[in-house]
Amino acid sequence: MAQTTVFTCDICKKSKGEKDLAKIKVNVEGIRIKGCDRYNPLVIDICTECLKEKGFIVEPKVDDAENEQTAGRNKMSLEDKLYDILEDMGVAFTE
Ligand SMILES: [Zn+2]
Fold first, then answer.
1. Measuring CA to CA, which residue among 54, 55, 57, 82 is closest to residue 68?
2. What does each of the 95 residues of the chain score in pLDDT, given as a tens digit?
3. Which of 68, 89, 71 is nearest to 79 (CA)?
4. Distance from residue 38's CA to the centre of ligand 1 (Å)
5. 67 C-alpha to ligand 1 centroid (Å)
6. What three-state secondary structure class fits 25?
7. CA of 55 to the centre of ligand 1 (A)
8. What distance in angstroms lies between residue 93's CA and the mean position of ligand 1's atoms?
């Protein structure tokens, strides 16, 4: 079946296939972020290339021990790069 829906990476704004995009959802409570609240999570569609650029490991590994390491590294990358990602999206933090 032909899939014609076009998805766009929120970071590089390039058109991507659905499988090339990861989704990061940020639920917001206790901080004002434009366009989101506790009922409307901020959804970030981010492509493989941008993930790599932010330091995420996207290649699936077969080894379980390695998978765990990858997950740990990616968690660190997310904590590290979340602000970067939000800034790339033009999300404004307001007081
Ligand atoms: Zn991208």
1. 57
2. 565 678 999 999 999 988 899 999 888 788 777 778 888 888 899 999 999 999 999 887 678 888 888 999 999 999 999 888 888 888 766 55
3. 71
4. 26
5. 23
6. strand
7. 13
8. 22
